[in-house]
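Study this protein:
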Amino acid sequence: MLSKLITSAVRALPALALLAGMSATSVHAQTAEGYWQGVQKAGALKCGAAVAPPYVMRDPATGEYSGFFADLCKEFADALKVKPEFVDTTWDNIVAGLQAGKWDMSLALNRTPARAMAVQFSVPAMEYQISLAYNKANPKIPAGASTVADIDKEGVTIAVMSGTAQDKAISSAVKTATIMRLPGNDETRLALTSKRADILVDASDTNLLLTQANADWAVAFSPTPALAKQGVSFGLPHDMAASDVEVVNIFLEEKVATGHVDELIKKAVDQVLKGSN
C-alpha cells in the first residue's frame, strides 16, 4: 500500500509543478510593467524622425519638428502625459535605430513585409502611393507618360531618397534609366529643379506639394500599375507586447475616424506651400 502511495505521489509531481509554473507565470503577467508604463516612468516618448515633408519636417534654424506625423507623436506623448523627444535619423537608419532601442517609435514608416520581419507596425494613419514628378518641358519624357516603362530609357536620370520605400520600389522596376540616390527630400528636389535629374520619385502627396508650388513647369503622374500602395504607420519595437501595440492602435483609430489626421495633413501641406512661396 505504501509503495502505491509513493508511486502515485511521484506521478503527481510533474502536474503539480506545471500548475505551480502556470500560477507564477500568471502572477508575473499581471504585475509586469507594460512598455508605455516604462515610457511614463522615463518621462519622455522618443520618436525617430527622418525628414520627408509633409510627414516630418525640421526647422534647420530652431531644430523644431512639425508635419502631421510629428504632430501625432506630440499628441501620443500628451496622451501618455510625457514629453515628446525627437531623435534625428535618416531613412537608411530608421528601422535599425528602432531595433537598437534608440527610440520608442519610428515616424511615418511604410508597412512592408521586409520591414515587418524587423519591427511591428501600428494601424495606418494614411495610405501611401508613389508618383513621378518631372519638368513638362523635358523632351526626354514622352507626352502622356503613364507607366514606368515610358520613362525607363537610356539617358534618363531618376532622383530618389536613399533607403525609402520609393527607393526600393523604383529600384526593382527600373532596368535602363540611371537612379540617383540622395540623402534627403531637399537634395532630390534640387536635383530635379537644377535639371541634374529628369524624374523625381516620391510619395504622391509630397510630389503634389512640388507641382502645386511650381505649377508653371512641374507635373506628376502615378504610374500604372502602381509602384507601391502601402499604409503609413508608426514603427514599433519587434518584441512589443500586443497589448502595448493596441494602445497605439486605439489612439490612431480615433484620430483617423474623427478626421483629425486629415486636419493635421492639411495643416502640414499648408505649411509647406507657405514656405515655398
In short: The longest helix spans residues 2-31. Confidence is low (pLDDT under 50) at residues 1-31. The CA atoms of residues 152 and 177 lie 5 Å apart. The first strand starts at residue 44 and ends at 49.
